[in-house]
Amino acid sequence: MACCLLSSAIMRIGSRLEILFIAGAATACSMSTAPSQVLAVSVDEAAIMSTLGGHRDSPAFVRLNDAPYPTALGTGADINVYVSTNGYAAYASITPEVTGSGVTVPEGTLIVREVLEPSGAIKTLTLMYKGPKGYNPDLGDFWFGVTDPAGKPVPDPAGAPKIGRVAECYSCHTPRASDGWLFGVPADVRPVVTPPTTPTPTPTPPPVIPLPPAPPPTAEPVCGDFFCNGNESCAVCPYDCGRCPDEDDDDDDGGGGHGGGSSGGGSNSGG
What we know:
By secondary structure, this protein is mainly beta. The chain has a domain at 20-189: Chalcone isomerase, CATH 3.50.70. It has four helices and eight strands. The protein has helices at residues 45-50, 88-92, 170-173, 238-241, and strands at 20-21, 61-63, 69-70, 78-84, 110-116, 122-130, 142-147, 163-164. Strands 1, 2, 3, 4, 5, 6, 7 and 8 form an eight-stranded mixed β-sheet that branches. The chain starts with 19 loop residues before the first strand and ends in a 30-residue tail after the last helix. Mean pLDDT is 77; it is low at 4-32 and 252-271.
C-alpha cells in the first residue's frame, strides 16, 4: 500500500469526521496496524467510506491537480488528488518541494488519492483521514485506507481490510512532521489560477466651480450729470465741479484804494 502520499485532502462527514484522499507518496508502506497504538480513540470508518464514489462531483471536495500526474511511488501510475473543502486552505499551502511550513490540517480532514488505470479509470483510492486527538499520536492522528473505486476496503494478503493505523508508514511520513505529516501536491501540476482583474476606477474629476460674474463696466464720467467724478474737474466741467477760483480775485488789505478822495483839493477860508 502506498502510504507515503504526496498530497492529502479534507472533509467533514456529518458532524463527526472528515476524510483525506491522498495524492502522492514518497515511498510505499504496508497497511498493518501498529500494535503499540492505544485504541481508546476511534474514527467512524463507515462514515468515511460513505463519502467515496461521488467525490469528483461533490461540492464538498476540491481537486488540487490540473491533470493526472505520475505518482512519486515509481509504479508508473498517474494519480489525481482531492481534498475536502474544510481542509483545502491548510492542505493547499503544503508542497513536497518545501519543508517546515508548520501547517497542520484540521481534525476531520480527508484526502483522497485516485490511482488510475492506463485508460484513465480509477483503480484504487488511497485515503488519509485526520482523526480526533489521541487516535494516532505518533503520526499526527491519521487514519489510512485503501479501497476500490466504490469505497470498499481492499484486503491485505491475510484477508484483513487495509484500513486503520499504519505503523509501516511512519518512516516516510515522520520526516514531514513539520508539515503536518503530509507531502501535498507539487506546485507545477496545480492549475494556474488567474486572479480576477479589478477594473481601475476612473477618478472623479473635481467639481467645476463657476467663475464669479464680471463686475459691471465703470461708467465714463458725463459732464452735466451733476456729479464731479472720474477725470472731471472745474477746468473741464464746471457744470459738475463748479467754477474754478479766479486767480485775480485777491483781497489785498495794504494796497492803494480805488475809492475817490481828494488830497488837499480844498482851500481854507479865513475870516
